[in-house]
């Protein structure tokens, strides 16, 4: 009888895990559809990094630097990684393009949750679109808008989560 109970619990857990994965994938499919349609004024975009990624974990984002800031005229490429717990847990976010911004680690481009309230206070309702729009807003904040930026055309090598070296440049 104990065995049946534990078997039932195992089946229930598997079923619950499947529900979580299905819910996560539906959510990500909705986000993908929205990202493909374009966002607002076109200064922020995102999409899947690898169409063959059935877990929909790896995403690419783009932010065009806002007017009247040190970021103006530059295109910033980002990598977003949605783990198994997304959307309950935030994605990890990393700038591939070199950027000087208070919430970004200058050595690896990672947006530090401890310096970016949206990540540290993540809510299930937030989306990658919300995240990118908030990063753009952060570029316009008084403490970031005039920060000197790395020179244009500087090439940077960074390692992506799969261990591949990615070369990118500020355009």
TrEMBL record:
InterPro entries: UBC, UBQ-conjugating_enzyme/RWD. SUPFAM superfamilies: UBC-like. Pfam families: UQ_con (PF00179). Gene3D superfamilies: Ubiquitin Conjugating Enzyme. It comes from the Eukaryota. Residues 23-171 form the UBC core domain. This is UBC core domain-containing protein.
């Amino acid at each position: 009888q104990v065995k049946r109970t534990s078997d039932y619990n195992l089946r229930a857990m598997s079923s619950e895990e499947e529900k979580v994965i299905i819910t996560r994938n539906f959510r990500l499919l909705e986000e993908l559809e929205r990202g493909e349609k374009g966002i607002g004024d076109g200064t922020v975009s995102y999409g899947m990094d690898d169409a063959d990624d059935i877990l929909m974990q790896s995403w690419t984002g783009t932010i065009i630097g806002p007017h009247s800031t040190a970021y103006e005229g530059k295109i910033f490429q980002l990598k977003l990684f949605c783990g198994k717990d997304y959307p309950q847990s935030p994605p990890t976010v990393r700038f591939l393009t070199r950027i000087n911004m208070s919430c970004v680690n200058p050595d690896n481009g990672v947006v530090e949750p401890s310096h970016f309230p949206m990540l540290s206070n993540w809510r299930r309702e937030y989306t990658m679109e919300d995240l990118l729009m908030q990063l753009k807003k952060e570029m316009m904040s008084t403490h970031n808008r005039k920060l000197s930026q790395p020179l244009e055309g500087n090439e940077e090598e960074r390692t992506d989560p799969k261990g591949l070296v990615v070369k990118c440049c500020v355009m």
